[in-house]
Amino acid sequence: MSGTHEHDDDHGHHHKETFITKYIFSMDHKMIAKQYLITGLIMGFIGIAMSLLFRMQLAWPGESFPLFEAVLGKWAPGGVMDADVYLALVTMHGTIMVFFVLTAGLSGTFSNLLIPLQIGARDMASGLLNMISYWLFFTSAVIMVCSLFVESGPAAAGWTIYPPLSALPMAQSGSGAGMTLWLVSMAIFIASSLLGSLNYIVTVINLRTKGMSMTRLPLTTWALFVTAIIGVVSFPVLFSAALLLIMDRSFGTSFFLSDIFIQGEVLHYQGGSPVLYEHLFWFLGHPEVYIVILPAMGIVSDVMATNARKPIFGYRAMIMSIIAIAFLSTIVWGHHMFISGMNPFLGSVFTFTTLLIAIPSAVKAFNWITTIWKGNLQMNVAMLFSIGFVSTFITGGLTGIILGDSTLDINVHDTYFVVAHFHLVMGISALYGLLAGVYHWFPKMFGRMMNKNLGYVHFWITAICAYGVFFPMHFVGMAGVPRRYYENTAFPMFDELTDVNILITVFALIAGATQLVFVGNFIYSIFYGKKAEQNPWNATTLEWTTPVEHIHGNWPGAIPEVHRWAYDYSKTNENGDYVLPGQDFVPQIVPLQAGEEELTH
After folding, report:
1. Is the pLDDT of residue 595 over 90?
2. CATH number for 55
3. What is the span of the domain harbouring residue 164?
4. Which residues are 415's β-sheet partners?
5. Is 548 contained in some domain?
6. Where does the record place the Cytochrome oxidase subunit I profile domain (predicted)?
7. Is residue 279, in this structure, part of any structural domain at all?
8. pTM value?
9. DSSP alpha helices (H): ranges in 60-176?
10. Is there a domain that residue 575 lies in?
11. Within a domain: 235
């Protein structure tokens, strides 16, 4: 460990970096974080565009839109969307948003940017492995986008890719080459996630600077560390499912197939079970929700403490709840399968473990609220997105109690109620966490500030539209409207809900357009934003002690030592004065003074 501290001052000046080594095949964690972020944002826009296309189809079924013909070509003859491509759009939207935007955008970006900076390390444990994990991610993203242009169409079995639709290439147009590319892309994506996660875990355990004990780590690093552990435990299970599915499709095995009839003809498959695939998929699929949400929780904790000018409330309880969520998330997957013919006793076991996970989640929610309570709030854009995160996390989480109960779930399973629930608690909340992190650490990444007023516009319109989209969706679901249906005109009882669908779609279109404000602000600020100070938010954590100009190795000279926990805001001595005169925060590198105690409880 001492070797990481004893680099000389001119560390990183041994060779001239070319454009390719600096911006493309970089091993510097800060550059790799930017690569993840920008790739994630590009994928995000592809995912959002797809959702707007199928929302238009849901609001105005059977209508002709010249836009459809322009974008979808042969899949929208005369501007009317084909039923096959509708399911493909839903499938690819879900896949891209869950894996390529939320998983890679949050874990990939912020684990790379913050772990070395917040623990006091020169870089990741292995720069080469880090670079390879990004390029595997990039390759899988390119393959996923390429699958959109296959003649038979992209994968179309829902983002969960259940067999037999995904296992029989002849089942439908979206089960052909597009599905094969989906599986190849996901296999490469999982390899990338595993390499990245192992790197993050080793870095946190081995490369912490002197004095940086585990109980002095910022909560963001704790969340990213535990997220990496969940990824290592659960991603290989999805890899095995994808591998077995490839064998079913291409090599004539029948792991997930049995007793299949096509047009009266019996296929030769026997002995497999599609429910086995469900178990394998959801054993990753549920921890995946927390792989997405935990980094956002960590980011929100740091942003809130910094902008409330108060220590985070219940630091150790927050760590324990992160660990409890990680453990419980791996034993609740069966609640996705309550109506798959599961034994009712097993259903009640999964109900119990599912409702149990509400406890650590509630601990976090109450602690965030208590952190803000009576704080000296700095209402910048990152703080607004953090408060928005707590709001959507609570409102989205409450409906999870209904879905987690095996008897109540039967009534709303596979309706828009489920879509509304997980988009609020996972999609919107995680995006808010991502955006809070981007606005907060943008000066650290690019050395410039984003425009605050454009940020306020972005937040308020997004927040109003997010509830405008997903709040009415709960009612559509309770009325019984099934998800993934291309149109509901065959059911006269749903006719009166057409107006609600139009309302949801209008909100979605406005929200989609508003993200262009963010992208404009983001790109403009990288080049022309106001130059950032070293510590623009007056934060205590180590990343703000590095110079604004990025250098290889993060700190010129020796790495600073840590003497206190990460949340010494508004701390006073026995005379009621601030510990550092005229400064309402004490950085982690300032030694404890006589008679001063460290508050890590």
Report:
1. no
2. 1.20.210.10
3. 28-257+268-542
4. 482
5. no
6. 19-573
7. yes
8. 0.94
9. 66-72, 83-95, 112-119, 127-146
10. no
11. yes
